[in-house]
Amino acid sequence: MFVIRLISYPSAPSTLIKNQVKSFWVGWGSLVVAGGAAYYFAKRSINADRAERHEADMRRRQVQQSLERQSSAPSTGSNPRNYDFAGSPSMEASDDPAPTRHAPETEKQRVKEKSKYEASAPYRAKKGDRFS
After folding, report:
1. Which residue of 35, 66, 68, 101 has the fewest CB atoms within a 10 Å radius of its CB?
2. CA dist., res. 24 & res. 56, Å (int)
3. pTM above 0.85, yes or no
4. CA distance 18 to 5
5. Radius of gyration of the chain (CA)
6. 85: which residues sit within 8 A by CB, 6+ positions away?
7. Residue 71 in this model has a pLDDT that exceeds 50
């Protein structure tokens, strides 16, 4: 423990001459209380700012959703075929021009339907010894 010596004057009380255990704990106690109070008020301020930002964000989202609902609301005389049915596979399937693939009837049709990377004839391995 550090000892602080003051210049001793005849009128100085003897309690000011050195740090006592009691004054040490009073100093640290006041520091802890001040830190706790600062933490409490800072936390309150931060939480208030967060709540304010959250409310503003929620208001902004509500406005955006209401605008989206207004723009996507169908008008009274519209044709239901104009809607986008991307989430409904059964509706997409009915719009396909040729939903089934038919087997080719001639060799020319068979070659024409193959992609450019697909062989026109299947690979047949050569018979016999390949190492000679």
Report:
1. 101
2. 48
3. no
4. 6
5. 43
6. 91, 92, 95
7. yes
Report the pLDDT averaged over residues 53-67.
95
- pLDDT for residue 131: 73
Q: Please tell me the distance from the alpha carbon of residue 56 to that of residue 62, in angstroms, as a whole number.
A: 10
What token pair was written down for 83? 């809607």
How many angstroms separate the Cα of 44 from the Cα of each of 32, 48, 56, 58, 128? Answer: 18, 6, 18, 21, 87
* CA separation for the pair 37, 87 (Å, rounded): 56
Q: How far, CA to CA in Å, does 100 sit from each of 23, 85, 94, 104?
A: 93, 20, 11, 12
- Cα–Cα distance measured from residue 5 to residue 20, given in angstroms and rounded to the nearest whole number: 12
Query: Would you say how long the chain is, in residues?
Result: 132
Structural contact between residues 6 and 17, judged by C-beta atoms closer than 8 angstroms: yes
